[in-house]
Amino acid sequence: MTNEAKEWEKEKLNPNGWIPSRPSQQFNVVRRVYQQDVLNKDADYHVPEKPLSYRCKKVLKSCGFGDCLLNSVPVARWLPRYSPRRDLVGDMVAGATTAVMHIPQGMAYALLAEVPPIVGLYMAFFPVLVYVIFGTSPHVSMGTFAVACLMAGKVVTQYSAHPEYANLVNSTNITDTVIAAPQYTPLQVLSIVCLSVGFFQIIMWMLRLGAVSTLLSEPLVSGFTTAASFQVLASQLKDLFGVKIRKIGSDYKVVLTVIEVIKNMPYLNWAALIISFITCLVIAVNNEVLKPWVSKRSRVPVPIELLAIVIGTLVSRFGSLKESFGIALVGNIPTGLPVPEVPPVELFPSIALDAFTITMVTYTISMSMALIFATKEKYEIDANQELLALGASNVFGSFFCCAPICASLSRSYIQYQAGSKTGLTTVVSAMLILCVLLWIGPFFEQLPRCVLASIIVVSLKGMFMQVKELRKFWKLSNLDAIVWLVTFLTTMLINIDIGLAAGLLASVATLFCRSQKPYTCLLGRVLNTDLYLDTKRYKAAEEIPGIKIFHYCGGLNFASKNLFRSTLFRKIGYLKPTESAHEDENLTKSESFEWDPTIGHRVQCVIIDATALSYVDAPGIRSLVAAQRELTASHITVLLAGANGPVLEMIERYNSLENERLQLDTFPTVHDAVVYYKILTARKEEPPLTIVSS
């Protein structure tokens, strides 16, 4: 055992008797005391330079025509490497399973968009084929999604002339004709919404704004989707109970819908209620009991939603439910494919804001789903490429009266569990949907709408359960919980658009609040080492007499400069609490502290630990200059330690432009600054000096 190790084992660290566990290895570090400029010279420091010509050359070299083609059209990258022996069976099974889920969910969610159920099947065919070409995630199931369809339905209800869609024109074209010049059918409004969403997504792709999805924080998305699920539930109450209610505006829709349904309870359709109850019960029992049991024995789940609509259609057809009990049915479903039509682009200025809101929501949810599976399967998702994929899909789908597509959590999970390997899964699913569109569609004309409403309500269970996340957010951060509550309450009680805007404002407010409460502390030295830790959290850390080491974590900018200055002065004792502050609780924060002119007798040096200083701007540097001037007037030496390269470069640029310069001795570590100051006070000669730390 070395002498140093023996001394470590014998030494009592503080009066409390705390003795550290013996380290497995011990090293002695011997080097000179460095000032920052000397270290820069010895280490050959230079500012990285990337001129415009260099960056342009790099872009052109790394992105030739072939690379651009492969990056923009991912199918050209994975399709040549496709292995039928390895992937075909999994893709076929997953595609068939996903198609089975697309049929009931597509028909049900189309009702949320205030359009015929067949539109949901169009969404499972036209836009998803484009996504296969441009998308980077093989596991997400694109198509209908409750929240996206609900948001689109709000716009349809607001701008269409006939919210209750008219009879379909023919078997190959479901687009209604325009009755009057400024009036639009629900399908026309939906098509321009889809085109606008695709347009915004392509513009964002061109501007490389893939990271914009991070603007919607996890608490915001959770609160928004949870509240939207209550909006969806409210929209289905009339079909669940079989009642007719008046048209309700977009504001306060949940509350007003519940009131209207309660008012119409005397006209309740008991047959519709019984069918809804049985359907919900059967699907819920399958999801909670049968599905977990089957998943352990087979990767193909029981297609309970498909069985529900098939059985519901058969019961309605042979039981004459409409004639006998007045049950509302789905109605005419055409066969064949729709004729493409150009959306009414003149409506774009009116629906642009709503379309942009849908753009943000659908992209954020789709990216979240894609990243979940990418993490599991260890592959990369290109956020910007996903913008192109979604944008191109929506633009193409808009010509066939589709709503904006979005990834579905339930379908994506089932598709992944069923063994999806590549984008060919989506192609298989789309081909099966095509068979339904060409031949099987009219079979579901006798399907009761209450069955579709039941499928929607049961599928919302996962989003309803997100209410439990409020407790998690509250434990992690009160500010995150506030964002969740603000988003949830405004979205559910007022409106979807207002709720999302309120959530964004709340998120920005939390960022500002966090910037105004950075982590600050005084550091003390741990024993005879070069470690300096928070004196309030580490009992072994003791302050060095006459030296205050102020640690600041965060950015120093125009918004936090005053906070930095006041916190620094309070921590080092330059601002001390007044005697009346303990007696009068009504005093403001500024009235609770007073200047202590005798600080120079207790503190001779202040070291600002900038190791966690992430950014500094000109107003922030100006606050450093002011603080240094005040402390220097009290005969206190101010040193700066641990600042990173960009911060030091910003200080250098500031000094070259301003008359009042920041003239601080800077050091690479706090220990260098401490030893340097001790040497100055001891009036010893300059280096060569050595610093020894264990």
Written account of the structure:
The chain has about 700 residues and is an alpha/beta fold. It is built from 29 helices and 14 strands. Strands 4, 5, 6, 7, 10, 11, 12 and 13 form an 8-stranded mixed beta sheet that branches. Strands 1-14 form a two-stranded antiparallel sheet. Strand 12 (about 635-640), helix 28 (about 645-655) and strand 13 (about 665) form a beta-alpha-beta unit. Helix 10 (about 185-205) crosses helix 16 and helix 10 runs antiparallel to helix 17 (about 385-400).
Write out key terms for the chains shown.
single chain, 694 residues, alpha/beta, eight-stranded mixed β-sheet, two-stranded antiparallel ribbon, 14 strands, elongated, disordered N terminus
Q: Kindly name the structural category.
A: alpha/beta
Which outline best applies? elongated
**Helix fraction?**
55-70%
In what range is the share of β-strand residues?
A: 5-15%
What's the tally of helices? 29
Write down the Rg. Answer: 33 Å
Give the number of DSSP strands.
14
Q: Return residue spans where pLDDT drops below 50 for at least 5 consecutive residues.
A: 1-23, 163-181, 586-590
